[in-house]
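# step 3/5: fold
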Amino acid sequence: MPHALPADPATAHAVAAHAVTVLAAEPAGTEAVDPSGPVAQLIIAAVIGIVVIIALITWLKVHPFIALTIGALGVGIGAGLAPNKAVTSFGNGFGATMTSVGILVGLGSMFGKMLVDSGAADRVVDTLVRRSSKAALPWTMALIGALIGLPMFFEVGLVLLIPIIVLVAKRSSVPIMKIAVPALVGLSTMHAFVPPHPGPLVAISTVGANLGTTLAFGIVLAIPVIVLAGPVFARFAARWVDIPAPDMFGTRGSASGPDDPASGGREARRGPATQDTASLPHGKSDFTRVISEPRSPSFAVALVGILLPVVLMLAQAIREATVPDASGSWVSLLDFLGSPMIAIGIAAVYAMVFFAIGGGMDRSAVSKSLESALPPVAGVLLIVGAGGGFKQVLIDTGIGGVIADAVKDSGISVLLVAWVVSALVRVATGSATVATVTAAGIMAPIAHDLSSPMTSLLVLAIGAGSVFLSHVNDAGFWLVKGYLNTTVGQTFKTWTMLECLISVFGLLGVLLAGVFIH
């Protein structure tokens, strides 16, 4: 979110287990292990390893995958593991993480690409904006940001939303910050809190949370956060930064080009040209223009596709919560359809069929769209895998157990500790991905003794911390600044502030829920 690396949509994952839907009821490797060295040595190794990771990313500009790998191996050897055992531990964690993450991120990325290239995303946006009054536009833009943010990576969603934000602000004469802030909050909040986004998924898998429970909690938490940090805060942001909408998009699609993720699909969807003659008095024709507008799936078809995986996973989670001991063919079917891989896979197939038909895409266009969805997520997968390796090293050296004992004995809320760790790494590296995988790895041993609902809240606390204080080391900061044509100071007053509000309101919501859930 917020998110650090230009193509770092922020992180991914989910481990299928227990009735196909429950993600790792118990995190692998969290059983008690013999420490590889004295406690002081373990703590020093962990601190130095994390500092090295942060320094490599921020100072030497090393890719997070390499930084996490070096840091993890260094921690293992420094904590007393034999070099070959450190490599084995890292490899085991990397492999387990990649096993769970690859399919989900691949299918999710394909679905998001089809959503954009078919015009389904445009259809949802256009329909909602057309039906909104000027006063309701900030709330509509928050809804659009949330809907677009649900299935898509942050950077793709941002590229899609910015032309909409600018054009809506111009056509409605509403201050651009009242339009931009709610949309960006909707996008960023979903990215931080709601599976099947990569950030929540990687934390879910690492700490062994239940995906359905986390999904339900995440949606409930996201609603007040979006309201407070979106339309409510937008009123203040519009006063603090009163600027005109940038003159960068003349008409929808004028920004098409090699960097526009929708350009290929837009061209593939162009229907037959039609003539539009504007008549003047006395039968004289002023001009005749040739129009070739893209086709798009209907609003209903697009909305069903976006919500389909969420509904399937929620249905399974509700069944498990209400009738956990139920049996029969309907239970087996619901558990099967609600498993993350199947739910997202069904959505991807739905997009291939219904988005393509509605968007006028032929088989070659669909194939090209799906193929182009995978390369951008390769870097994310490597980062997440390295984060899994780092987590396993922390566990195998016994560092995780030391951290868990320290947190338990301190009397400080586990949820607050998770948020602080995630926020510190986020501020230091600028990367939501690195913040999530690092914090989840550190907190995994602690999660072992938590109830299932508390483990889900732990995931949301990590997600909230991972978007805290976006500043000059975050690519998202510069993307927003460049698109909205704001100064650095104005970007701090708007983008940085809204990210802090999402993070703090998210933390408050998690802590409040933690009072009632044990």
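# step 4/5: annotate
The CA atoms of residues 177 and 238 lie 5 Å apart.
# step 5/5: archive (pending)
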